[in-house]
Amino acid sequence: MRDDIDVLVHEVGPRDGLQSIQTIFPTEAKMEWIRREAAAGVPQIQVGSFVPPKNLPQMADSAEVVRQSLEISDLTVAALVPNLRGAENGMAAGAHQIGVVISVSEAHNMSNVKRSVDESLDGFSQIVEYRDAHDDYKDTVLSGGLATAFGCTIDGKVEISAVMRVAEEYLKRGADRLSVADTVGYANPKQVKDLFDELYRTVGTDIAVGAHFHDTRGLGLANAYAAVEAGVRELDSCLGGLGGCPYAPGASGNIVTEDLVFMLEGMGLRTGIDLDGLLEAREIMECHLEDEPTQGAFVSAGRPLGFEPASVAA
Ligand SMILES: [Zn+2]
Question: Is it true that domain 8-313 has CATH number 2.60.120.10?
Answer without folding.
Answer: no
